[in-house]
Amino acid sequence: MPSGQAASSLVERGRALYDDQQYEESIQTLSAALLRPTTTPADKIETYRLLAYNFVVLGRTEEGEAAVRGLFVLQPDFKLPKGESP
Q: Are 27 and 55 in contact (CB under 8 A)?
């Protein structure tokens, strides 16, 4: 599997862990995706979004804010879809 696919797989795994309420594991997986040089900008945006959600759920406000800042660096006009809440 090419390394770009590996990074996407990490993002997908991080999303699945978040959905399963395994927040610490999700954070670790998503953080690994950010370290991959082949992670696409779209995957980075999704990774920062999911990291922010994880941190909010865990009450880790400062880390959540840092993830949101990372998200806005990549997509300054990012908005949550209507009806979506972390």
A: yes
What integer best gives the mean pLDDT of the chain?
90
What's the CA gap between 44 and 49, in Å, rounded? Answer: 8
List, for the chain, all residue ranges whose pLDDT scores fall below the cut of 70. Answer: 1-5, 83-86
Give me the long-range contacts of 23-32 (CB less than 8 A, separation at least 24). Answer: 23/54, 23/57, 23/58, 24/58, 26/50, 26/54, 27/51, 27/54, 27/55, 30/54
Q: Amino acid identity, residue 56?
A: V
Model pLDDT, residue 82:
72
CA distance 43 to 63: 19
